[in-house]
Amino acid sequence: MAEAIATRAAYGRCLACIADKYPQLVVMDADLSKSTMTADFKKVAPERFINAGIAENNMVCMAGGLAASGKIVFVSTFAMFAAGRSYEQILNTVCISGLNVKIAATHAGLTVGEDGMSHQMLTDIALMRSIPELRVMVPADGVETEAMVEEAIRTPGPVYIRLGRSKVPALYDEGTEFEPGKIRTLREGSNVTLAACGIMVDKALQAAEMLAQEGIYARVLNVSTIKPLDKETILEAAHETGAIVTCEEHSILGGLGGAVAETVAESWPVPVLRVGIEDQFGQSGKPDELLELYGLTVHHIVEKAVKAISLKKAF
Amino acid sequence: MSQLEMGAQQWTGPAGNFPLTDIARQLRRDVINMVWAASSGHPGGSLSCTDILTYLFYQEMKLRPQEPAWPDRDRFVLSKGHAAPILYASLARRGYFDPAELSTLRQLDSRLQGHPHYGALPGIEMSTGSLGQGGSTAVGMALAGKLDKKDYRIFNLWGDGELEEGLVWESVMAAAHYKLDNLTGFVDWNGLQIDGPITQVMNPEPIDAKFRAFGWHVELADGHDFESLAKAVAIAKATKGQPTLILCKTVKGKGVSFMENQAGWHGSAPNDAQRLQALADLADPGTPGDPAAQKEVNR
Ligand SMILES: Cc1ncc(C[n+]2csc(CCOP(=O)(O)OP(=O)(O)O)c2C)c(N)n1
Questions:
Q1: Structure confidence by residue, pLDDT tens digits, A128-156
Q2: Index of the ligand 1 atom closest to the CA of residue B44
Q3: Which ranges of chain A does DSSP label H, i.e. alpha helix?
Q4: Which CATH number fits domain A184-314: 3.40.47.10, 3.40.50.920, 3.30.40.10, 3.30.2040.10?
């Protein structure tokens, strides 16, 4: 297994590693390069690092111009200011024109911690996945982050990559091959499916372990590409396990839970219960305290799984 | 959880004759203690604007700390919301709430959120934290004052790096367009943002000429000198038909030797030893060392 590392750290390290391999790569930041870790890239390729200053909207549109001129552009800032503040620039400049801009947004979710609600982006998956043409990725560990950065470079057009502030345990071995866009089944099971992304994947695996002790066999999916969604794997899970619990460090509205519920509702309705932040703002606190308070815990996933199974009969 | 004795000293009476220098030193100690207790937060940009807030809250603004919603009060908007620690300290020592609560900064369920939250605490006039937005809300408050024919004044504080946000200039344009002479802007001109000097990251200079070109009256002030601030504010109040900017030359980390002019202290908390050194730098003259430094119960 690889080491525990924050996905933002893996991102910065990866950019620095591939700077030479892709001479058309340009990296932009908005005065947060030491936090988003794009400073790693700046160190090795300062001439291709562009600081936009504290001006996220301008950064996104400048990236559009660079991309229209043949560059592959990564733009980074906190998810709140990337997906939130610059939502309309992402839509109207980048995505409308299918430009080669890769938005790598860090410090997503509650685990921003002490900075509090103004910095805790809980709705970016919902916002980003509702924009046509935009691919939305949420890597679950460092190895997957690196794979997704390279995948984003190889895939023409706009991409949103959601990254976190806190360290996450390694799920994959160094050098693991990923099939782009495909959901990974991390654990087989037939009673219920736990479909998770980001930091919640590890918690879903722990929940599956606890459920197994009760004789409940949960399938665990790492849904790291939220759009376009690997519907086939989701529907297979609906069909074979009959109940799904989604797990995400995001509002229960419109994110992974929304994507999964929409998919099964249209083709193979089964109960879908959502673990996430219940339509409310965050607050200041330590990341672990916040996950506990807002119900993003192994225990809560287990509870929802049991409930989802009990609801099967009703359908 | 840390237990920190903040000291109960408050200055609650009508503004006018408070010992501003002593208050500012106390507020700076509060900033250090709060950020230390939270193990996170923004000391550099809190210390650079401490004297500006001290002047406004303890000398200038018409306030009723016991009646925070008093309709005729002056309003202060901290557009650079990451300087929340100095806003909280200013409010607590002015009588808005018990200074003991300052030690809860950034903790779960605290009213002292990482960035100011409107309604969470008495005296917070607007939620801020996402840079560039506070100035626009101050324009809205100034417009409301005109609509209601009230003579209260609005004071807004921007960071100099914050001026890189385009939205700031939309608000600056609107304030001049609507001739909001009841609005006074301050820029905490400390020359630094997170990634380094403002002139190297994304140069917002010349700040004074930009504001003038947008239709504002501009005064320069020493942001660490109360007389200089008083003079500039007096001119702002006498200036009719346009808003005034007071461009305040400041030092990021002011008062703590090892934090001064260091971009690295933008958003990092001091460790135990650094805290004690900072408190020594900020000790009241004539005292062997700040007694607050000894009052720590445990951590
Ligand atoms: C819209 C937005 N972008 C980025 C940030 C992150 N951020 C917090 S403080 C800061 C630097 C602010 O610099 P400046 O305005 O000069 O503040 P000061 O030096 O006075 O603390 C940045 C980029 C933010 N809070 N809001």
A1: 999 999 999 999 999 999 999 999 999 99
A2: 21
A3: 7-18, 33-36, 39-44, 56-68, 79, 87-89, 124-129, 142-154, 200-213, 231-241, 256-267, 287-293, 298-311
A4: 3.40.50.920
